[in-house]
Write a structure and sequence with these properties.
By secondary structure, the chain is mostly helical. The protein is built from eight helices and no strands. The radius of gyration is 18 Å and the shape is globular.
């Protein structure tokens, strides 16, 4: 029992801080990425009773604009994780739609398993599955369109912005790998 609790003490050093230039690049690129998605959503998608912006994109922005070397931030993980999780979230809701807590538990846990199997782990994508399940009628009415809009289109926009803006700095390189 003592060994079990001793694991909770940690032991590794805290990660190093980042310089002001890195903070500014992360701020600038995330502002552009989320700004484009937000603008397109409000100007073109919401008037058509759609959306292009979902909460999990905020967490994706942290990865693809501030933790760009992380395996979790690479294109395969960004796009694959979101698409796989969206498919699973919609399917879980369709199978168990009357019991939201069951949908949520099954959807998120299956999304995690599928991302692990496909090597596409992207933590925000767990929220992508959950957002559809708990999203209410407006979200549920999208059905499998949710996989393409907002999920696929929004993740693709973040990827394009990450490729263009992250590589403007001579000290940044994105992606580390594609597949």
């Amino acid at each position: 029992m003592k060994e079990y609790f001793s694991k909770m003490r940690g032991g590794a050093k805290s990660p190093p801080g980042v310089g002001l230039a890195e903070v500014l690049w992360s701020w600038f690129s995330s502002m552009i990425g989320i700004g484009i998605i937000g603008y397109l959503s409000s100007a073109y998608f919401e008037p058509r009773d759609l959306t292009l912006i979902i909460g999990s994109f905020g967490a994706s922005a942290v990865l693809v604009f501030a933790a760009i070397k992380s395996p979790l931030a690479q294109p395969r993980n960004l796009i694959g994780g979101h698409i796989i999780s969206a498919l699973i979230g919609v399917t879980a809701y369709r199978l168990f739609g009357d019991i939201i807590w069951v949908d949520a538990a099954i959807g998120v846990s299956l999304a995690i398993a599928a991302m692990l199997i496909t090597k596409t782990v992207h933590p925000p994508a767990g929220a992508t599955a959950l957002i559809f399940i708990i999203g209410g009628d407006k979200m549920h009415n999208l059905g499998y369109l949710y996989v393409l809009i907002p999920v696929g289109a929004g993740a693709f926009i973040l990827l394009i912005v990450a490729l263009l803006v992250n590589n403007l700095s001579k000290n940044r390189k994105y992606p580390e790998y594609w597949l």
